[in-house]
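Sequence only, no structure available. Ideas?
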Amino acid sequence: MDSFYHDDNLVFSVGNLFGPGNDTTGTTLRWGLLLMAKYPHIQADRVREEISRVIGSRQPLAEDRKNLPYTDAVIHETQRLANIAPMSIPHTTSRDVTFQGYFIKCPMLHSHCRGHLIPLLTSVLQGNSEWESPHTFNPTHFLDENGGFVKRDAFMAFSLGYFLFLWSLACLGEGLGRMELFLFTSLLQRFSFSPPPGVTEDDLDLTPSVGFTLNPSPHQLCAVSRV
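Reply:
I predicted one. Tokens follow.
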């Protein structure tokens, strides 16, 4: 009874998994396919080669991720560069707190307080001090010198959670989202993605279309079966 978890919390949490969760995963997939079409050497020479060598023609499994470091790096780099939720969603504190000299009130303890915290994820995901080439699609951001996958503290595509208290709580659907994005590598097993006739890779525009999330600008792609 004294916790923050109750029936209303449960209903909203499940709703977020099926509502905003679908939107963010779908948007990330659209960015991923657009980037694969724009950079065919990454799609064919690196990602598809690794998938064919490790998985072959069978359906990808979640446990395959650890054996596909380059593919995993491409997924992470897609999320970083796409930056689909640049300001995340509004947060609140669960108690009064002083942070870097600022006193932040908890709305649950002060009826007159309606303040929110808005984390600017862009400042981290595309920060010059965090990434070697912050505005370029560069999967090596997540690879070491031996080609192994490297976790980066500045990768916050799933938001920040209650960072003020050093709790490791971010997006409720992070585990589901990571698994979904990885399993959709099966698309690259079965199709090659390219611009339509008359359109070059350079013509594919990476300027986002602003909305609730940052979607790719309207475009067309060709999916050619490889089976």
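Residues 162-168 have pLDDT under 50 and may be disordered.
Hope that gets you unstuck.
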